[in-house]
Amino acid sequence: METLNKDDFYRLVESRKSIRKFKPDQIDKAQLERILLAGCHAPSGKNRQNWRFYVVQGQKKDEYLALSQKSWLNIKDILKERLKPSLYDFTERFFYTLGGAPILIFCYSNNTKDEKYLTSVGSVYMAVENINLACVAEGLGCCTMGAPLEIKKEVDQFLGVTELEEYRSGELELLCGLVIGKPDHQPPKAQRQMEDRIHWLGF
Ligand SMILES: Cc1cc2nc3c(=O)[nH]c(=O)nc-3n(C[C@H](O)[C@H](O)[C@H](O)COP(=O)(O)O)c2cc1C
Hints:
By secondary structure, the protein is an alpha+beta fold. It contains seven helices and four strands; from the N terminus they run ααβααβαβααβ. The two termini are about 30 Å apart.
């Protein structure tokens, strides 16, 4: 294997941050294919590669905004208590516009009895992190979103996955959405807390 520069790797990992405001520029399909391929290089339980990605742009993406606004109504009360007013307003705008992102990716897990549920779900999230990092490498911004889970059934119908056999048999589950595009802001890096996060035994 070709030697990788470890400094580049750590810089990549550390520079990743959630981007919530995007330029309207379209994204090359070839670029998206590279990003998704990086996702598919993730490890997965029993190598089932149980991720399923639905990539949405254009008018279909615009149609999704109405659903995103609906998901906001489900969580706004909780956030009102938790966020300071300026952040609450920014978050509300983000749900209404998705930051103007040209691309949405909905990430599903295929869960079957031959693999533990959490292993299946975890495998998909490993792919999701690869996608986040590939976006950084491509000069793109990304934000992982659990918000679509507030309106899971409607998202399933919106994407048409309800027609699939693996959905009808109860195997297909939406885990998160990703918004992707060229960054149009540079938010500060969210602080990392190391206290009580790592426990060493036998050192
Ligand atoms: C599973 C998951 C769900 C998330 N859901 C949302 C969301 O619905 N809306 C949002 O704005 N950010 C969401 N985020 C982004 C987190 O808020 C963000 O990762 C965290 O605040 C740390 O900031 P950073 O990504 O810039 O390091 C989610 C992140 C993860 C991993």
